[in-house]
Structure formats: C-alpha cells, structure tokens
Amino acid sequence: MSYFDNIRTFVRVYELGSMSAAGRDLRISPAVTSSRISQLEERLGVRLFQRTTRSLSPTEQGKSFYRGATEILEAVESAEAQIVNITENLKGSLYVAAPLGVGRRLIAPQVPGFLKNYPEVSVRLRLSDRKVDLTTEGLDLAFFLGQPEDSNLRIRKIADVERVLCASPDYIARRGMPDSGSALVAEGHECLSLRFPGATEFQWRLTTPDGPKRFRVPGRYESDDGDVLTDWALAGHGVAMKPVFEIAEHLRTGALVPVAEKTPPEPIQMACLFTHRRRQDPKTRLFMEFMVDRIAATI
C-alpha cells in the first residue's frame, strides 16, 4: 500500500471527521481506512487522531501534519495538471457541490454529457442547501445562489436569476391575495423560510417604489431544503420565495401563482466558487466552462 494513498486517506479522514465517511468517499472499506491511518501513524511515530467509540478528533501532531499533507497533494495535483495540459487526457475525480434545486435541475442533467466527453473523469456531486466550505470539505468547486461570505475564493458569475413570491390558489382562497411585502407582514401571512442552522434572523429583500427593502416576514414553517418549501407551497401552507427556474412548471400549470407583485424579490446571483489552485486544474476549468455555458442557456 503506497505512502501517498495513506496521506490521501488521512486528509479525507481529517476533513470529514470520520473514518467511515472517508472510506465511503474514497470507496474503500472502514478496515482499509483504519489500516492506512495506523500505517501512517506507525511510520511517523505519532498519534494523528484521538479515537473513542463515539468520536474522532485530530491531535496537535495531526493538525500540523494536515497542513503538510495538503501541500503534498496539491503539489501532485499541480504536476498532474501540467501533464494533462500537455496530453489533454483528463482523468481523476471532481468534487462538486450545489444547492438542491440548482443541482437537481441544472447540474445533474448535464453531468452525463460532460462525462461522455471525458471518460476517465468521475464527478462526485454533493447536493445541499446548506453553506459549504470548499477547503475543509475538499471541494473543487461549488455552485451557489447569493453572495459568498469568503472573499478569498474566486467567483465565476453565471447569471442573475429571477425570483418570485408564490402561493397556491387554495392558500390565496383562504387567506386572500397579498399585493406587497407590507401586506405579507400586516396580514400575518405564512411565509415559508429557507433557513440554515445558526441563522439568527430571516428577512426577505424585496423591490419597492423607494428601492430595495428588507421585510421581516412572519411564518411558522422553515426548512434548510428549498424543495420542501416548494412542497409546502403546493400543499397550500404559505407563501414561498423561489427562483423561477425551480417552479416554472408549477407556474405554467397554475399550481402556484405569483403574489405580492407590487414588491417582487430582487434577482439573485448564480455563480460558482473555486480556489485559485482549483482553477488551475484543467478538469475543474473545463467542467466549470461546460456547466456555465449550458446553465446560462437554460435559465
């Protein structure tokens, strides 16, 4: 078993915080994962992780080694990228994250076309509406809606995505048709909120005659899954703010209808994030360009 494989396994265990999760990610058994870490610890003569039956955490030596280990992997990836640039023979795995709606409707359908062009590349698509960390999660790039918080990452803008406030005809029949953000608040409408762990407040930023304004909307329903909000809206439980591309079919059939049209939501940026190092990887660059072209033509 190669020392390099042991280092790669250590990095994934460190980033994912679990032997089993790292094993699944690398497609190796938990026994092989544990064996590789043990071999690495034996070679280095230190303990890299503190293990209990319920948790795993890096030691100080493990934290120090992680910094050097990632530099080793980056150096190898850089060397491979130079060879790929010469041979144009793309190979290896791409780790990609995207919000659920974006991933299911825009990214996933295009992946087979990309892999058909590059048969030695594999794509590992992680879908979640939570915020992701490219560095700690070992991602090559992440698609997102909104504004990123980390200014150290590079951004490739794809498009400004139109959004709409919407509800089902059944909900409107019961609660009335709100004409604005102010009406949503004053009339106590159920507003379906996309919210993540750790969020301290939730507001909707809407366009008013006086410019953009934030509304602290009421509502008892919240989820970190955007598709759950769509399902609740379809079932008549409240008003949702959704990207138009996610609910276009429901708008077309009338299952959902626009509300509060005097104060529509501001468009939201769709873009992809990557680190400077990842941008240098040819397969990352080509995957990004492939997706950007197709998504921009879709929405």
TrEMBL record:
The keyword GTP-binding does not apply. Residues 1-59 form the HTH lysR-type domain. Gene3D superfamilies: 3.40.190.290, Winged helix-like DNA-binding domain superfamily/Winged helix DNA-binding domain. It comes from the Bacteria. InterPro entries: LysR-type_TF_proteobact-type, LysR_HTH_N, LysR_subst-bd, WH-like_DNA-bd_sf, WH_DNA-bd_sf. Keywords: DNA-binding, Transcription, Transcription regulation. Coiled coil: none annotated. Belongs to the LysR transcriptional regulatory family. This is LysR family transcriptional regulator. It comes from Sulfitobacter profundi. The lineage of its organism: Bacteria, Pseudomonadati, Pseudomonadota, Alphaproteobacteria, Rhodobacterales.
